[in-house]
């Protein structure tokens, strides 16, 4: 069979090129509407994804980095920098899903169901590490620790921290939706009730929290282990302070002093 002359082949080649160009433009327009098809899971679509793990590095008495890392089953990482961090605000990164699967396998084998809400610590001014595991059904298991934790929990915390420290995060926002990063100035003092262990001298114990401007107000009843404190939320947020108190070896419980009204 004789080959087609050049003047017949040239239009065919142009048609093929135009077809490829048209296909490329179609893909470009299609993915422009959904960048996740090219870039992977995005923070803007986070409500559609399943959260499987969270890591929170809490405050200390000094300039400790405070941040949260949320890990989703599709490999999306959301870094939320709160204070003293080089990445303030909301940042995102995608990792291989197999890396997340390996981490979740370790968390599933750990004993999250039986971990205490907080492991007892003897170092009041150290930052707390809070780890939350979400199982496939969405149930959350949360615990926190400082220097005392099971080896498998420490390994999980280290793995989550390494994910948070990976390079290549892309900034999404300079603020974190729904989070007030710094305490508002001139807030009124708040009251906290603590239950101290037997034999603890409350007046001597509270001195360790002088940097937070915590003061002992009164003992709630004679011979009672419950004491009323006042705290300055302009120095440290109440929730952060409660986390510190609950990990103090001398403290059995700590909670806000809530007002009681008629039912």
UniProtKB/TrEMBL annotation:
Record-annotated DUF6438 domain positions: 54-163
Taxonomy, superkingdom: Bacteria
PROSITE patterns the UniProt entry points to: PROKAR_LIPOPROTEIN
Protein name (record): DUF6438 domain-containing protein
Species in which this protein is naturally found: Neolewinella lacunae
